[in-house]
Amino acid sequence: MKKFKGKIYKYIYTTDSGWGVVLFNLLDNPKKVLKLVGNVSNLNKDYIYEIEVEQFEDKLRNEINFKLINFKNIKDFKEQDITSLIKYLSSPLFPTIGKRLAENIVKYFKDDVLNKIINNKEELMNISGMTIEKSLILYKNVFELKNNILDFFIENNLSLDIYNKLLRKLNGDTKLFENFLKSDFYSFANKNKIYNFEEIDKISLAFGEQKNSDRRISWVVYNLVNKILFASSNTYTDIDQIKKELYKTTYIDINYPFQSIINNLLYAKENNILYFKDKKIYTKESYEDELYISKKMFEIKNLVPEIKYSDNEITKKINLVELYFREIKKDDTFKFNEEQLHSLKSFVNNNVLIITGGPGTGKTTIITAIIKLYELLYNKKNDDYAILAPTGRAASRIKEDFSDLTTSTIHKFLKYTGEDNFEINIQNQVSKSLLIIDESSILGNHLFSNLLKGISCLNKLVLIGDIKQLPSVDYGNLYEDLINSKLFTTEYLITNNRQSSDNDIPKLANSLWDGNELELNDLKNVIFDYSESQNLLIDKIKFYYEKFNTNNLMESITKVQIISPMYKEEFGINNLNNIIQNHLIKSSKFSLKKGNISFKQNDKIIFTENNAKLSLFNGDVGIIESIYKDKEEYKMRLKFLDRDIIIGKEVLKNIDLSYACSIHKTQGSEYENVIIILDQTNKYTNFFVDKRMLYTAITRAKKNLVILSTKETFMKCSSFLKESRKTTLVDNLLNIFKNKE
């Protein structure tokens, strides 16, 4: 580690994330320039800094560069730094001062110069060459620099990311920023969707918050409850769970009595940070989401329809929809089955309709049929309705089957801008009379609540999914709760249109769910490959992947997918991705690294976070078409099913390899060929993987399914079902319907 003093000479480039390259002029040797690489967004071109750097060799350019580790604005100089102090006071930070006057200032005050300028303002006019105008500039700039919030953040090792983010929100108003920092920064950060609680707490304490104040303890417990809900996907917890987990954190002194914490939490209750009801404890968001969903569902269900149609009129229109399908499918024998007919009639006769069915039962067909029926009956156009899905793959799958339909992810429809913010919201609504949501089983309470807030004039809502699949990653059990409330008409699609004499994948999925015994080795298009040998298993994974894969890179996205429930260990997702990557891609001109992951040309990748700026969302899968160097920066061209996009290194944190991925990440997608791996050597497999997870993984496969596992592990997982999530949405729904009807 080396230290230098100097100032920014030139910005070469910076990215939105703050990463960049600058040229740095040394204070004691102005002719020497260092090239700094790192987070340079907080370096002001006019300031003088002491920097800490690590030297590294850029072999491509055959030059020595320096990685920026830390920096501080130079404000305090020792006696031996007189030369530096004179250069500092004559720098552009102090216009009109100049070198000679700077020398006179240092000579007059001798030591502790900057503090003496602030504390002895009246003496400034005693300095040779000083004018009133110059003394005001000198005093003002030294005072501001000595009391700079940015410096305070740097000196106290506080988050510069939060500093930059909030200063942008406040349009650079440092006084207003300082007021928030010194009043109730916890609430301010929460309202502005800043969720790094460890950093928020550090900032609040640094600006005077007392460690055991009611406010701090309330927000500490709020943060803990949020983590509990995220881990469990429940919508509430209880005081025993809080007590059990709270003292494991570093936020609370182990000797601080729990009864005092209970007393502190009165503040959380009074300020709606937490909700307490029937010994259940909710965060503000989890409680209000359930309540809002319940009220809105009541409103939609009880709207009086503008037009009522007879069964005969509905049947006539359904016959016209059948004619449409015969034409687009080029099949003169096409007819809706009884379940589909009943679902279409239920759609007309109900404001809220829930449809559930397994793979191949015609859910995509029913979506298109509902739209066509809606257009015929109500004379509506595509601007009047929205077809949405929680994932990009689910949304695009509908469009693949019926290209004239417009579909979107929920995040894209709501114009997600990052950090749980949506441009379409309760203050800025979009008018839609019909809303259809596919893959509703993976829709969480919070996103659904935001969606309902963003739509006005909604009088018909259709939720389509598979009740047997995994619920959302977020808290809540929305789809199943709505069905279990028995307040909304629910149609069950059972007849499998994909079941054929040469494909037993649906048969396996349904038998597994129903608990029926099957002769596993007699199933068509299903291979159970049991292996006790770990080395043999790796060879089999490579064999099956290569067997099903295609040379067409875009087709490979949906051609074959490895599914593993775990990320770690030998047969976890991370290692499997490395194995397949090394097997398929022998060399690459350029590669970009993220930790232990190396991204190469032709790699299959997945986005793991929502990125509003790029309009890419969690679960979007694509191909690295190329990696190339643009001036000083490496970039990647990514190809997705609907478009190409170019990204820089700063986006790598949101990308993973996707030859193998988790069961959750595959939801909403289907693949021609699926390889499921259940690792009996991983201790978490037997209590983490249950019947619902296995059913979800199996139903991702359309043509061929390979299950690599021991028979004992497979049977154990298929006979185990986790407890339902703890939610109170059903109770809220029943209460609202009972009290208002």
UniProtKB/TrEMBL annotation:
- Entry superkingdom: Bacteria
Q: Which CDD domains match?
A: SF1_C_RecD
Checking InterPro entries in the record gives: AAA+_ATPase (IPR003593), Coronavir_polyprotein_1ab (IPR050534), P-loop_NTPase (IPR027417), RecD2-like_HHH (IPR029493), RecD2_SH13 (IPR041451), UvrD-like_helicase_C (IPR027785)
Q: Which keywords does this chain's UniProt record carry?
A: ATP-binding, Nucleotide-binding
Single annotated GO MF: DNA helicase activity
Residues in AAA+ ATPase domain copies: 349-518
Does the record bear Nucleotide-binding in its keywords?
yes
Q: What is this protein called?
A: Exodeoxyribonuclease V subunit alpha
Specify the species: Spiroplasma turonicum
Q: Gene name, please?
A: recD
